[in-house]
Design brief:
Largest sheet of chain A: none
Number of domains of chain A: 1
Largest sheet of chain B: none
Structural class of chain B: mainly alpha
Shape of chain A: rod-shaped
Oligomer: heterodimer
Distance between the termini of chain B: 55 Å
Number of strands of chain B: 1
Radius of gyration of chain B: 22 Å
Helix content of chain B: over 70%
Largest interface: A-B, 34 and 57 residues
Number of helices of chain A: 2
Order of helices and strands of chain B: HEHHHHHHH
């Protein structure tokens, strides 16, 4: 271990190498490192934004779906109500038609029976007159006794 | 594992030969301190490793993309991020030179330490083919190499002390810290500050040097075992060499990391008042 002028040579080389590193090695590498750190930060921020956007879009889609479902349900209930109303109307109409028919039939039947009764009365009166004629022969004048016969007819 | 001299060297000669630097004078340095001598091998290998380090780093830097990084870029980025976060935690101030300097120190020291992984005889043997008879390939196992770097750190500490606190502020701190602002305490404070700076710098360089020097020496001792050319020696060389090399991976990286961390800690201290 002898000391000599090598020491100063080494000292000079030390500063030359350090200067070279400071000038040509350190800045480009640090620049690359910083730029990459920036890129990574940007990428992470973009990823976060995309995630937020996705969540927003999903929420929107769910809302739209829910709205569509609600309006469909509304439409259906409206249609059901309308259908029920139509059925109700038809039923009422039917009942009305039936009852009208029944009334018509009843009145017709009543008129027919009245007519039959009238005819029957006529017949009975004629029969009674014929019978009385047979019994009384010439003693009863149909024209003279018409009032009597009409009274008899109404009593039947 | 002979060194190629005419007679087979003894173990002492072998180790001694491997611990001798290739100097600018061509022979072994006589005195402990001689400023007229350069260790050519240390300078060559430290510049080579420094160039390799910044070549790899600048390749990564020139192709750096903010998009998906390749494996090489990702590896360099891990390193840069590690140094950046460490320096951010330790140094509070302008780090535009400090952080790159710390990265340079880490990569450079790592590569210089990693020269230990080459077989201890490989480069000296190749050198001998070209007439170079002495060569030590681990620049961090040379005290000049490590102290050169730690003195560089000391100069940065002084620079940032003055830059952050102003020359007057720093002088004031030199005389009033750590014991307090009293005329009687000025000499003590100043002495303590000088001891602190010296101790930091010397221990900073010595720690790395000691670890790598010891590691290199162990590799040489293991190589000596193989040089006996016996079955036991060969077996011992393979087993011990493998174990030590694997363990040395830890030391190489750890020492480079420690050197970088201490660089940051010392410069960070320069940013903070006592």
């Amino acid at each position: 271990m002898n000391l000599n002028a090598t020491l100063f040579a080494q000292l000079a080389v030390f500063f030359i190498l350090a200067w070279f590193t400071m000038k040509f090695v350190w800045p480009p590498i640090m620049k690359a490192l910083d730029e990459r750190a920036g890129k990574i930060a940007d990428g992470l921020a973009a990823a976060d934004k995309a995630k937020a956007d996705l969540a927003h879009a999903e929420k929107k889609a769910t809302d739209e779906l829910r709205k569509a479902r609600e309006s469909a349900a509304e439409f259906r209930s409206g249609a059901e109500k309308q259908a029920a109303q139509l059925i109700e109307e038809a039923r009422t109409e039917g009942v009305r038609i039936v009852s009208a028919a029944r009334t018509a039939a009843e009145s017709e039947a009543a008129a027919a029976s009245q007519r039959a009764r009238e005819a029957l009365r006529e017949h009975v009166a004629q029969l009674a007159v014929a019978g009385a004629e047979k019994i009384l022969r010439k003693e009863i004048n149909a024209t003279a006794h018409a009032e009597l016969l009409t009274q008899l007819k109404s009593e039947l | 594992m002979a060194t190629g001299t005419e007679h087979a060297p003894t173990a002492g000669e072998y180790i001694g030969h491997h611990l001798t630097h290739l100097t600018s004078t061509g022979h072994k340095q006589a005195s402990v301190i001689d400023w007229s001598v350069l260790n050519v091998d240390t300078i060559f290998w430290s510049i080579a490793m420094g160039l390799l380090g910044i070549f790899l780093l600048s390749r990564a830097a020139s192709k750096a993309t903010s998009g998906v990084p390749g494996r090489f870029q990702a590896a360099v980025e891990i390193l840069v991020e590690m140094v950046e976060s460490q320096s951010k935690n330790i140094v509070h101030g302008d780090r535009s030179f400090i952080a790159p300097a710390a990265l340079t120190v880490f990569v450079w020291v790592l590569f210089m330490n990693a020269m230990d992984f080459f077989p201890v005889d490989m480069f000296p043997r190749i050198g001998e083919l070209f007439g170079i008879h002495y060569q030590r390939v681990v620049p961090t196992a040379d005290l000049n190499g490590t102290l050169g770097m730690s003195i560089g750190v000391l100069l940065m500490c002084i620079y940032y002390n003055i830059k952050v606190k102003g020359f007057g502020g720093w002088l004031h701190e030199l005389f009033t810290a750590p014991f307090g602002n009293h005329p009687l305490l000025y000499p003590v404070n100043f002495a303590m500050q000088m001891i602190e700076f010296t101790a930091k710098t010397v221990s900073h360089g010595m720690r790395l040097f000691g670890n790598m020097y010891a590691g290199e020496l162990v590799f040489m001792l293991i190589a000596l075992m193989g040089s006996t050319a016996t079955a036991a020696g060969f077996f011992g060389h393979v087993v011990a060499g493998s174990i030590w090399a694997i363990f040395h991976i830890l030391i190489v990286v750890l020492q480079a990391f420690i050197f970088m961390m201490l660089t940051l800690v010392y410069i960070g201290q320069a940013h903070e008042g006592h």
